Amino acid sequence: MRKAFGQWLFNEHAWRVLDNIDFWVPHLNGFNQAIRRKHQDEYGTDVPERLLNVALGIDVKFYATTEVGDKDEAAAMYNGYEGCCGFKLQMVSACGGQCAALSNGYPGAHHDQFLLNHTQLNLKLRTAQQQYNQAHNLNVVFDLYGDKGYVNRPCIKVAHKAPRYQHLNPEQENENQAMKVAVSAFMETKFGRAVGIWRFTDSCKVLKVYDGRGKGQPRHCIHIVNSYLLDNCLIGFNDAGQTAYYGVNPVSCHDYLSYVKP
């Protein structure tokens, strides 16, 4: 019964997590303002100019698994850094912990840039914004926050890294402090919530993947996708949770589930 419900939930609503960037575009201004307020509260200064238009965050998460087939598949899924087999998911997260976009699972050891080359989440966000601006006669563009693995990628702002034997200047240090607020608001909040509510999403534990196998091919993990979907709904029900901490009203569960792609 539970397995059948999980499969139905994935079949009917997984697109709300996997391919739903258009829905979040009208809310980006609110997320951006929340990050500005949080930075003001934390450091007593305004957000640096370079980061004024950051509204979402992007990062990857590794999940270990014991569900592997033959030696070839095990080799394709092995991640030397983690020391086990598994796959990575790339996620765009909104301030307060709601998941705006999630990629397929990519087995084995892949750099963040490799996943971005395949998912194109940054360019999809920019395209959705341009279409929204044209429809509403606006000219507002927001970027993603990413860690240093996303350096030199369009639409993504990363923290400064000092050259060898040199130090960052005060302005760069201030911008990196602003990035720390974004890290907490975007990615760490989401991953922390997922682990706290659904323990099987903890990458430190053994995770079983219940969907079909495919050597070296991207694949969904039904249970993980469903967990992020349900968590988005849960945040929408409880506006006194993480989103209230960042000073932004969450997208309500009604609005989230009633949205239909144009």
Overview of the molecule:
- The chain has one domain (2-258).
- Strands 1, 2, 3, 4, 5, 6 and 7 form a 7-stranded mixed β-sheet that branches.
- Helices cover 46% and strands 13% of the residues.
- By secondary structure, the protein is α/β, with parallel strands linked by helices.
- Helix 1 packs across helix 9.
- It has helices spanning 2-13, 15-18, 21-24, 28-43, 71-77, 112-119, 121-136, 170-197, 222-237, 242-245, 253-258; strands spanning 54-64, 78-79, 84-94, 99-102, 106-107, 143-145, 156-157.
Question: What distinguishing features does this structure have?
Answer:
single chain, 262 residues, alpha/beta, seven-stranded mixed β-sheet, 11 helices, 46% helix
Task: Write a short abstract of this structure.
With 262 residues, the protein is an alpha/beta fold.
Query: What fraction of residues sit in β-strands?
Result: 5-15%
What's the order of the H and E elements? HHHHEHEEEEHHEEHHHH
The overall pLDDT average reads 77
Q: What radius of gyration results from the CA coordinates?
A: 19 Å
Note the main sheet.
7 strands, mixed
Kindly state the number of beta strands: 7
Question: Share of helix among residues?
Answer: 40-55%
* Structural classification: alpha/beta
